[in-house]
Amino acid sequence: MRIEEHPILSFKRGKKIKFYFDGKEYEGFEGDTIASALHAAGVKVLGHSHNHKRPRGFYCAIGNCSSCLMTVDGEPNVRVCIEKLREGMMVETQKGKGVLK
Amino acid sequence: MKTVEIAVIGGGPAGLSAAINAASLGAKVAIIERDDQLGGQLRKQTHMFFGSKEQYASTRGVDIAVMLQEELKKYQDNVDVYTDTTVLGLYEDGVLTIEQSGKYMKLKPERIIVATGASEKFLAFPNNDLPGIYGAGAVQTLMNIYGVKPGNNVLMVGAGNIGLIVSYQLMQAGVNVKAIIDAAPRIGGYLVHASKVRRMGIPILTSHTVKYAYGKDSLEKVTIWQLDEQWKPIPGTEKDFEVDVMCISVGLSPLAELLWQAGCKMVYVPELGGHVPLRDENMETSVKGIYIAGDVAGVEEASSAIVEGRLAGLCAAKSLGYANEDFEKMKQEYLQQLHSLRSGPVGEKIIKGLSKVTVQGGI
Amino acid sequence: MLEKTGIPTKEDIKSITPSEERRRKGPVAVIECFQKIPCNPCYTSCKFGAIKEFKDINDRPVVDFDKCTGCGVCVVNCPGLAIFIIDETYSDTEALVKIPYEFIPLPEEGSYVTALNREGKPVCRAKVVKVQNAKSQDRTPVVSLAVPKEYSMEVRFFNINDYFSDNTYICRCEELTLGELRELIRMGYRTLDEIKRISRAGMGPCQGRTCRQLIMQELAKTTGQKMEEMPMTTFRPPVKAIKLGALAGGDDNE
Ligand SMILES: Cc1cc2nc3c(=O)[nH]c(=O)nc-3n(C[C@H](O)[C@H](O)[C@H](O)COP(=O)(O)OP(=O)(O)OC[C@H]3O[C@@H](n4cnc5c(N)ncnc54)[C@H](O)[C@@H]3O)c2cc1C
Ligand code: SF4
Ligand code: SF4
Ligand code: FES
Q1: What is the value of pTM for the model shown?
Q2: CB B187 to CB C80 under 8 A?
Q3: Pairing of strands B118-120, B103-114
């Protein structure tokens, strides 16, 4: 769900970037965050809460609320709303609390 | 440890204006922004701003951000810009701890201007944690920075300026806004903004709130109901909206953690959005050498954030011996601009709030 | 009420409407800004001094209609998009309404669109006479619509789809188009009942829910009858609602 044309803004999309979400291949653009690329691909559920196992998406999109924690390239608790997309990234939904860095 | 004369924390309209003014007067400035670009909230605002010429009225927020950065470039010899850089701590001895792309450093500025803006408030209702329920700022970021639609059908919660404007921006991006609801009996935002979305056919339902959100993995439906004069829900007035996005825009609160850490005296002022620091008319807090500007000093508007930034930049530079003989004249000019921006009925609340935290003649 | 719904009241509108005499003279600005807010570009952008001086930035704009030339400069400078130009001298029967429109796609000159009122409800079909989008307007295009004169103070937005075209279905059940309805009216059918009998419109499963209002609107427009004075058709049970079409404006919560 990308905005292709806009009355005020023009979006300059960088080159295409391949990444993996729970093992499946996805595509985003240079300049995307992990969350924006996933959302554009229709992925809204980024994880589940640890106690009640409720689905979680992003909320603030600027790194304030920690609603969007995922495991990226093996590292847990990455706020994907501010983490820029890189070629070949392995993004996974996080099981449990993850190990703190 | 690195030092600098003035560190400006936050690169929104307040921080940019502070940096421009201080640097133009000759001070050496570092401006620190956690985002990868300067501009703050302005980067997401596609609409023309209110105010007067002095605050770039009629110019779109995105373009004001560019203009302020151009202005800052004029003084680049005096300015170091740090983007992708977050200030993690501000200690009572005035030392900043900073993270830049995974690297940590310390900075000991002679003066600090905190212009960190505000963060969004949340709303309590059953299932308010479902994916598809986003803050208005998040929707704007997704849409206007990354060019991604948040969904297809939106229910906007909050008829303040942000709720009204984001609704308009959603329609511009080709997303359908089903309705705007607000618990208050009156529209909080500017009525011209309200009329603008109303004539596009978007109903504005005042005295309404969210009863329940439904959805398996993500939002599918929202039930709202009406409130009576005591703000109590009226059973039987429920209405359903089939939406995949609910956008929450129920106000901002100052992002003041750093000021708490530094030991600034804080006061809870609901009119200004929450806890804000005590300050004098130079925008200096109770901790000598720490200044404030913009939404962190009290949630208001970009127009006043710009002027407060200029004022704080001027006063911080002056305290280091920079400002020339024009100091008093400039200061009075800024105070006058702030006064006139706040002199109407919408500014009454702000003036009332400020009267609780502004100490004349130093703290 | 404006503060509750965003829709200005009749009194609000009356208070800012230029006199009929002035409207007969040529284009003029209509400023629908009813609240004191810290904003003044309308005043500072007018080169003709037609907006009274703002002593305070929170003042409300007051137009000196004798000085206003209808140039439209203020329209694109108003952050509230609250200014419209109306020109009742456009033709004998039609007025021009100039509307700021920041959406894509822009309508094409010469095409028809559906004119909406301040609630976003359809008012009439409107021809797009001009689309101005100069660089100086900074991405606030202005669309000039030709509408029947009596709607110059009604029409404030539009939907790019031409819902009032001859091909639009007025009655979905019996498949009566607007073009056919217009032909019937031209032939002399003047009441809902007459039209219903000849066309069967309103006798299908929806019982006239979708078409009745639309037929009445069209009758009002072409024959000058008042909606509230029109004789209604005989209603017969069962009364079962179906969703209204986009043309009827829809229900607020639909
Ligand atoms: C939808 C919307 C519409 C608006 N419309 C208008 C309008 O029409 N007219 C008007 O005048 N105003 C408007 N405003 C208000 C205006 O945008 C804000 O009042 C203004 O941006 C406040 O400026 P600021 O510089 O204080 O904060 P911000 O613009 O929020 O900037 C703060 C900056 O600080 C950074 N930051 C925060 N913490 C740290 C840290 N620890 N380290 C480093 N950097 C940090 C943030 O990333 C941000 O960039 C609108 C706001 C919104 C959300
Ligand atoms: S239309 Fe032109 S003359 Fe009239 S008020 Fe606006 S800017 Fe002034
Ligand atoms: S510019 Fe528009 S919103 Fe601002 S005061 Fe004038 S009419 Fe009102
Ligand atoms: S969504 Fe809030 S931190 Fe990522």
Answers
A1: 0.91
A2: no
A3: unpaired
